[in-house]
């Protein structure tokens, strides 16, 4: 019996040490939050699942944990418990180790600061530029619909041309950003999530720039399937 207990204890110790090596700890503060629930989430297959959660009552400090195999996309989801259907979500690239996310209640998913994840820093840089493209697209659509209502074909044609140029610039920016950051897992992630329908030759060009460890990452493997390597 003692021998069985000793073996069980050793197994638990080995599992604990292994888990610690693969543990991601996400902590931070949400200024202004007095009550709510914070969830650490991840997409599995086609659904978003909660991995860890914490009830906040009186202060905005939080700490969440997960055991992970490699850097991947995670979500920090805030349920403000205020009866509103729409809540806030921060997308970030998780990795083994400590990640710190600080933000404010009023600007939860737009004014946050993150440290401890190089991929997340790069993701924020990419998303900030992508938002500018989206704003430009909205401005063009506003002009387009106004011209359509006024039946001004000249402006309609002009706007369509500008939208096509904007789409090309967005694709080119995404491709260049992925190539320039090919030493990080975010590179193939941007390719498969933003420009998966791009010309196969362009995707091949990106895939060829990836070092072996990135090719063997989750999104590197998906990109490899897209390029038929």
Overall pLDDT metric: 87
Shape type: flat
Extract low-pLDDT stretches. 1-5
Beta-strand proportion: 25-35%
How many H/I helical runs?
Answer: 7
Distance between the amino and carboxyl termini: 54 Å
Helix content: 40-55%
What is the string of helix and strand elements? Answer: HEEEEEEEEHHHHHH
Number of strands: 8
Query: Which structural class fits the helix and strand makeup?
Result: alpha+beta
The value of Rg in angstroms is 22 Å
Order of strands, widest sheet: 4-1-7-8
Largest sheet: 4 strands, mixed
Outline the fold blueprint.
Elements lengths: L1 H20 L1 E9 L3 E10 L2 E11 L3 E7 L4 E8 L8 E7 L2 E8 L8 E3 L2 H32 L3 H28 L5 H9 L5 H10 L2 H4 L2 H9 L3
Parallel strand pairs: 1-7
Antiparallel strand pairs: 1-4, 2-3, 2-5, 5-6, 7-8
Helix pairs in contact: 2-3, 3-4, 4-7, 5-7
Summarize, please.
49% of the residues lie in helices and 28% in strands. It is of the alpha+beta class and 229 residues long.
């Amino acid at each position: 019996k003692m021998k069985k207990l000793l073996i069980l204890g050793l197994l638990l110790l080995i599992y604990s040490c292994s888990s610690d090596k693969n543990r991601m700890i996400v902590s931070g503060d949400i200024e202004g939050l007095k009550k709510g629930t914070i969830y650490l989430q991840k997409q599995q297959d086609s659904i978003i699942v909660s991995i860890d959660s914490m009830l906040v009552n009186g202060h905005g400090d939080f700490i969440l944990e997960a055991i992970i195999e490699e850097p991947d996309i995670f979500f920090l989801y805030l349920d403000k418990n205020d009866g509103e259907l729409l809540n806030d979500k921060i997308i970030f690239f998780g990795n083994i180790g400590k990640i710190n996310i600080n933000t404010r209640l009023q600007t939860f998913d737009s004014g946050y600061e993150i440290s401890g994840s190089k991929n997340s820093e790069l993701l924020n840089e990419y998303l900030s530029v992508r938002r500018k493209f989206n704003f430009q697209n909205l401005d063009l659509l506003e002009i387009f619909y106004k011209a359509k209502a006024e039946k001004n074909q000249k402006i309609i044609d002009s706007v369509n041309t500008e939208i096509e140029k904007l789409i090309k610039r967005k694709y080119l920016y995404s491709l260049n950003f992925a190539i320039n950051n090919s030493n990080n897992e975010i590179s193939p992630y941007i390719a498969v999530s933003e420009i998966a329908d791009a010309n196969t030759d362009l995707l091949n060009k990106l895939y060829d720039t990836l070092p072996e460890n990135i090719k063997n990452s989750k999104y590197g493997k998906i990109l490899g399937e897209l390029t038929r390597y």
